[in-house]
Amino acid sequence: MKNFKQKLWLKADGIVILIAVVLATTSRLLNIQNNISDFMFLIGMALICLTIINILLHAGLLAGWFRKKQKGETDEEYQERKIDVRNIASEKKNAPIHFESFAANCLILGIVLIVLAIAVTL
């Protein structure tokens, strides 16, 4: 949790949350809360999708694919180019989840916007 708190951009997150709260209260006063709620919900879902994409891009899902011997390639060249499966499995596939500051902030903002969108419609 301590490491997660270090990754947050407090000023930027605070400004976005403040704008969202002002927008939510204004929509309540102008009686357009359904439109604003839908917009905030969609933005929140997009931010959560960005978080998932960011995490999956660093997951090494395509690491360690088998490479075939190319036409005209000698056995020595193929052995140099060949991927060590044990090395890939131990280093890349079993590495911890890469959760950088962009993903952490998108996740926090996405959750806050979705909760705020639900609260506006109640």
Q: Could you please describe the fold and organization of this structure?
A:
With 122 residues, the protein is mostly helical. The chain has one domain (2-121). The chain is built from 6 helices and no strands. The protein has helices at residues 2-6, 10-30, 33-57, 75-81, 85-93, 101-121. The relative contact order is 0.21. It holds the Pfam family DUF3899. This is DUF3899 domain-containing protein. Residues 38-122 form the DUF3899 domain. The chain crosses the membrane at residues 12-30, 42-66, 102-120.
Which key phrases capture this entry?
membrane; 122 residues; mainly alpha; transmembrane; transmembrane helix
Topology, pairings included?
Elements: H1 2-6, H2 10-30, H3 33-57, H4 75-81, H5 85-93, H6 101-121
Helix pairs in contact: 2-3, 2-6, 3-6
What is the SS-derived class?
mainly alpha
Radius of gyration: 23 Å
Number of beta strands? 0
Indicate the overall shape: elongated
Biggest sheet, open or closed, and with what strands and sense? Answer: none
Count of separate DSSP helical elements: 6
Give a short overview.
This protein is mainly α and 122 residues long. The chain has helices spanning 2-6, 10-30, 33-57, 75-81, 85-93, 101-121. Helices cover 72% and strands 0% of the residues.
